[in-house]
Amino acid sequence: MVSDNLQEYLRGFARAGEPWPELPRPDPVGTSWWREFLGRTAPGERFAGLREGFPQLWLPTAEGQRQSPDYQRLVLRGEAPSEEVRARAPALRDPEGLAISLEENPCGAMPVLRVRDREDFLFLLHALAHHGEPVPVGEGVHAQALGGVIHWGIVRAEGPRARARLILLHHSPYGSVPASEVPGEWSEEGWSEASDALRLEHELTHQATKALLGEMRINLLDELVADTMGMIHALGFFDAELFRKCLGARPDGTAAPRARLPTYTAGLGKEDAVNAVRLCLARAAEIEAADRAGRIPADRWERLRWLVGLRLDLPVEG
User: Fold this and answer.
1) Tens of pLDDT, residues 161-186
2) pLDDT grade, residue 35 (50/70/90)?
3) Which one, 17, 107, 196, 294, has the greatest CB density within 10 A?
4) Of 298, 296, 101, 299, which Cα lies nearest the Cα of 200?
């Protein structure tokens, strides 16, 4: 018998059958700041420029950072950093590996920060998403969509309640899966480049479900939808076995060590979690079959509309 908790988890997108809002959607608050910032700064100047808006980046990752006097002054009150703060501010390990862009999208333009160094990714993630606190981050995590981040450039331009949204990406193989396990003939760098495109489409898909359906959930269906969109965009096909490996799921539905999978089943009991994963993998196999048969819409937005109509507990139909 399916538990009430699992039944709620499997419900799908509540508004999947409703008409979508008209596209394009308005750009998020703060987009004008990013356009102006990218227009006036050279690539080599952009980390320093980011600190104009994100004073979090003057401070190191440390236990209790969000309660520190420096955090209170810089981040919560928007005061300028002292010479002492500037002198001991952390630097990127690979400053040339930082790239910033504004990705135009019918669901609203999104600023994207890309880094090549893993430690730089973790520093930015801890500073912007976790208030400078050293929160554990899974080894399989290489991307994060952030919202509600204090950004003083946007606050001063848009008002005290305005906050920044952005996507943070780490240049690395998707799901930590090596190129040798990806269908086709891929070099390690070629697979990492494709992974960048897959990750970005994955995160933009989450933003799209929020804009169009009012939901962006930590749920296996959301991950299946986003990975399907990402793989088809970056690779030209969807592969269920690659999806399983990137998710970090074993064939029996349990999680592999250091996988990102437990993040999406954290609210379920052990048995319910395994059942949810098994259902997800079954739907993935059916999506691959539909893709091979040419039954998935070629148009990006029609493909998303088709995918969000799926449920983990119901077979995929053509």
Assistant:
1) 999 999 999 999 999 999 999 999 99
2) very high
3) 107
4) 101
| Single-letter residue type at 198 | L
Q: Is residue 36 part of a domain?
A: no
305 exposure class (CB count in 10 Å sphere: 0-12, 13-18, 19+) = middle
The rounded distance, in Å, linking the Cα atoms of 149 and 129 is 7
Question: Is it the case that residue 125 has pLDDT exceeding 90?
Answer: yes
Q: Which domain holds residue 164?
A: 41-171
Assign 268 to helix, strand or coil. coil
Pick from 105, 116, 124: nearest CA to 59: 124
Q: Which residues have a Cβ under 8 Å from the Cβ of 180 and sit 6 or more positions away? A: none
Give dist(CA 75, CA 81) in Å, integer: 10
Record the tokens describing residue 284, joined without a space. Answer: 């993935």
Q: Judge whether residue 1 has pLDDT over 80.
A: no
pLDDT digits (tens, 9 = 90+) for 127-170: 999 999 999 988 888 999 999 999 999 999 999 999 999 999 99
Inter-residue contact 316 to 310 (CB < 8 Å) = yes
The structure's pTM equals 0.93
pLDDT at 318: 60
Query: 175, 194 in Cβ contact below 8 A?
Result: no
Residues 217 and 159 in one domain: no
Q: What is the pLDDT of residues 228-246, one digit of tens each?
A: 999 999 999 999 999 999 9
Cα 264 from Cα 260, distance rounded (Å): 8
Residues 51 and 160 occupy one common structural domain:
yes
Look over the chain and give the mean of its residue pLDDT values, rounded to a whole number: 96
Integer Cα distance of 74 and 70 in angstroms = 6
CA-to-CA distance for 48 and 58, rounded, in angstroms?
10
259 is written with which tokens?
């996988």
Tell me the residue type at 82. S
pLDDT, position 317: 83
Q: For residues 164 and 211, state if they share a domain.
A: no
Structure tokens at 219: 């749920």
For residue 189, tell me if it sits in a domain: no
User: What single-letter amino acid sits at 233?
Assistant: H
